[in-house]
Amino acid sequence: YKKDGTKIASGLTTDAKGQIQVNDLKPGDYYFVETAAPAGYELNDSKLNFTVELQTTTKVATVAATNAEKTGSVVLNKTDSDTGKTLSGAVFDLYKKDGTKVASDLTTDAKGQIQVNDLKPGDYYFIETAAPAGYELNDSKLNFTVEFQATTK
Question: Is 44 in the same domain as 90?
């Protein structure tokens, strides 16, 4: 768009390098607005302003746009293996598949649950670090995957 809101071009799509090139713009102020984000990314609909200056030598104006990767959530449910009763007070650490610790001292609530939000797509695991009173520690890896999502679930 021109600064005054006049649309110059639409349907411009980033190439394999993540770039869009528009030639033959007259000197002045312009802006891009993203109308569709790549699959798995949030739409960034802010105005991306740039200026084409009067040039005696050719100079290319550049503007950068970023998108945040869509994230997912996980809910862990801690229950008694015999009765199925939910258990509060169990403490877990959360790791990426490669062993990088993401969070520690996550404790199950009154419903026996831990919810973790804003996880990027990938493989993770929980490890219990403290069992509820009267229970044995289950220190096996509890693996899960946050799927790549083209739409929010």
Answer: no
Alpha carbon separation from 145 to 45, 51, 78, 125, 148 (Å, rounded): 29, 44, 18, 8, 9
Confidence of residue 153 (pLDDT cuts 50, 70, 90): very low
Where is the domain boundary, 23, 45, 68? 68
Residue 153 lies in a domain: no
- ∠ CA 50-54-57 to the nearest 5 degrees? 110
Mind listing the pLDDT tens digit for each residue in 53-68? 887 666 677 777 777 7
Taking alpha carbons only, the member of 110, 107, 113 closest to residue 128 is: 107
Residues 120, 58 within the same domain = no
Residue 85 confidence (pLDDT): 92
Q: What is the pTM of this model?
A: 0.60
Residue 15 lies in a domain: yes
- Which domain does 18 fall in, by range? 1-68
